[in-house]
Specification:
alpha/beta; six-stranded mixed β-sheet; four-stranded antiparallel β-sheet; 12 strands
Length: 256
Amino acid sequence: MEVKNVSFQYGREPTLVSVSARIPKGKITTLIGPNGCGKTTLLQLMTKNLKPSAGAIYLEGTDIKEISLRSFSKKVAIVHQYNTAPKDISVKNLVAYGRTPYRSFYKGLSQEDEFTIDWAMETTEIRDLQDRPMDSLSGGQRQRVFIAMALAQKTEILFLDEPTTYLDVRHQIHILELLQRLNRDYGMTIVMVLHDLNQSIYYSDEIIGMKEGRIVIHGKTEDVINRNTLYEIFGIHLKMLHANRQSYVLTVSEAN
């Protein structure tokens, strides 16, 4: 996917200003930046939930505005930051909604649909929850269900907007390890918004750093994350440590 000179504004307020980026196929790309910098807006534009005020976004060389929503949904799936579902719907029935782009309105689930739903639940390790109603699940379990529903779309690209929000650290790691496994085992291209800098560094192949509606850094994680770029993005001096070929950020000001 390629973003070319995309701008967006709500009313007269510009949210994104001439943003360009190429999302590498088969990699994990994470968007970082301060609140209100345009991360979620860019994600919404790349998933056809918003339309650019200027510029264009291309998928396999085609402007996504020319791709029908049904066709687009067979190529791109998204897990939103805030996901809702009827309280009494079962896990399996919710995951089955992921097959909507492939189904006729008047037909039930095909054998392929059933196989894909089972695969999505098995992959996200929620098979034992399939008959449970959604309102009986923990936050971590619910997030896995929504990821399973996205997987049931059988797309090559998965977008996630802050997938670890409101989860304790154990469930955060479980979700990020799941995404890493999807990328490794199935070659899935993953694009996500994260706030935790160390998780962004550890689980990402590439980083897009944003500030005030613009992309200020973009590249391989080990090449673009350092004290200077973090200051450029967040406006605060942060200490960094390096151990076992891995960089870590101390999220306290150097002034302390």
